[in-house]
Amino acid sequence: MTSLATYLYRSCIVARLTDVTNAIKHRLEYEQSRLADVTAEMENLAAAYNRFRDLKEESEKQQESIKRLSLVFDMLKVKNPAPNAPMAAAYGYSLWEIMETYLQFAEKTKVGEILEFLQWIKFTTTRQAVESAITTHPRVFRTTKDGWEKYVSLKQKGA
User: Fold this and answer.
1) Within 13 Å, how many C-alpha atoms sit on residue 146's CB side?
2) Per-residue pLDDT tens digits for 12-47
């Protein structure tokens, strides 16, 4: 009786193993065909996806540029910034970033003219701070001399 039960039990296991292996095989085939479909669709969408990423990056740059440019006018509206408050914290940009924005339009200017602009937009700072910002950001600013005069400009992209 025990041997009969063992024989019947083994055939039950073998049948189940066959069902399971068939199910695995069918799932594998399905996954492979689905992967082929997904890969083909991804190839069709690759150009649009890359274009989307480029546009998103450009949009973020434009938003940052608008924010920086409008900062000049926002600073003009401020009556009196808090005394002894760091200007960068008050306006959200550091000195060198504001100088960079200014030099996008002034192109080549003297440190004194940068100070005049900063004073005009009510960004209080010192000549030493401006000189330090130029020195500590050599990838952004370039200094040139013309006789006794020292000029500051932006470095060209890729230079």
Assistant:
1) 5
2) 556 688 888 899 999 999 999 999 999 999 999 999
- Do 98 and 118 form a contact (C-beta atoms < 8 A)? yes
Question: Per residue, what are the HEC states of the chain?
Answer: CHHHHHHHHHHHHHHHHHHHHHHHHHHHHHHHHHHHHHHHHHHHHHHHHHHHHHHHHHHHHHHHHHHHHHHHHHHHHCCCCCCCCCHHHHHCCCHHHHHHHHHHHHCEEEHHHHHHHHHHCCCCCCHHHHHHHHHHCCCCEEEEEECCEEEEEECCCCC
Q: Pairing state of beta strands 108-110 and 141-146?
A: unpaired
HSE, side-chain direction, 13 A CA sphere, residue 74: 11
Dihedral angle sign, alpha carbons of residues 36, 39, 44, 45: positive
pLDDT single digits (tens) 79-108: 555 555 555 555 677 889 889 989 989 888
Report the alpha-carbon distance of residue 140 to residue 135 in Å, rounded.
10
- Total-model pTM: 0.58
